[in-house]
Amino acid sequence: MVARQTVCVSRLGGGRKGEVKFGRFLGNDTVTVDAVVEGWSTRTREAVAGRHVLAIQDTTEVKFRTDEGRRRGLGKVGKGNVYGVLVHSMIAVDADTKAFLGLVGGKVWTRDGVATVSHKNRTLSEKESQRWIDTAVEGKEVLAAASMVTDVNDREGDFYPKWVRGRSEGLHQLTRASQNRSLANTNECLFTVARTFPEAGSREITLAARSGQPERTAKVTIRFGTVEICRPKHNRERGLPPSITLRLVEVYEANPPAGAERVHWRLLTTHELADAAAAWQIVDWYLLRWAIEQLHRTMKRQGLRLEDSQIESADRLLKLAAIATSAAAITMQLVQARDGTTDEPASIAFSEEEIATLDALNPTLEGGTKLQKNPHRRHSLAWAAWIIARLGGWNGYKSSKPPGPITFRHGLEYFRAISRGHHLGTV
What we know:
Elements: H1 9-13, H2 16-27, H3 33-39, H4 44-47, E1 52-64, E2 75-76, E3 83-94, E4 100-109, H5 130-142, E5 148-153, H6 160-165, E6 171-176, H7 190-194, E7 199-207, E8 216-230, E9 243-252, E10 264-269, H8 276-287, H9 290-299, H10 314-337, H11 352-365, H12 381-391, H13 405-426
Parallel strand pairs: 1-5, 5-6
Antiparallel strand pairs: 1-3, 2-3, 3-4, 6-10, 7-8, 8-9, 9-10
Helix pairs in contact: 9-10, 10-12, 11-12, 11-13, 12-13
């Protein structure tokens, strides 16, 4: 999938024989979605060692074309008469270098009918919300070698049991508030009290392109302070404390440009906020959440075009979605590494055998002058990306346009064929 930038089975197979093999693989009962998801983190475990990791979670809806007579066993997603699967994933991003280190874990599923019991009358274990806690708990084992972990979520991850059960040594939380919660020992609510905090400074932030909005710069002001949120009155979970103490950072854009959505975030966190610099750090970490949105775009319309798949059954589509998530992550790592701004090892995306092939290829792609040499540290991901880009047709000069996804696609396809031959020659 990485090499061909597609999930189309006929293209992946490279012919009828390969197509049949790939179809049998997806249809094999011993190939499970859980096993594929478990494999997401194979190289991430080592990549996170000694780092402060932002463990960013989110869910995306993968919508497939269906009609009344051809639902393919899929459940409803989103609003209206739309069917598909849901992919919930957690990715690891270095809090200091901003490097995308790989996938941590998650869940891929399709809904089995529509819930008949109201949301407030169901326990957490009966709700899809449970996935946020389960993914964080499972991620702790994958991220065990990290020096610190901050679980970063958008508004859907803001619910009281998660704040309580996600707290542990070495694990922090950072979530955009979705609810105007009641506060302990006061008649005020969360959003109201935020406006009473003194302003702590203003600066410009860069907002990534999303939902039809182009990338832009916004001048925002922050306020921050400590809040004690109350347990919701109608929460049915047992053993939850009556309140918990968190820190709140309000981010507000006073004068957005015409037609742009105003920035107004309330960011809740378990991190201590000693001063304005610490509050701005929370904002910067939250801005890195765009990486998981980019992962989802790479899976779908702007990359692998997962939603165009014509595979007939839900169980196979679930496996395909799980595999596509892993492929999209590798593509993102290569594109990010091309400039050499981070010093990640090639091992976070390539096996030992593939790195040996890269070693053999590098001298054949370098020219006689310094400008034509691979400028990156040997066995770094940037070094590997330079080689893959050269195989894809990039000329290697800094003055040229940086290689993009299409160049990497061609380079990877060529490289995979070379790597297979190189490995066979050394067996």
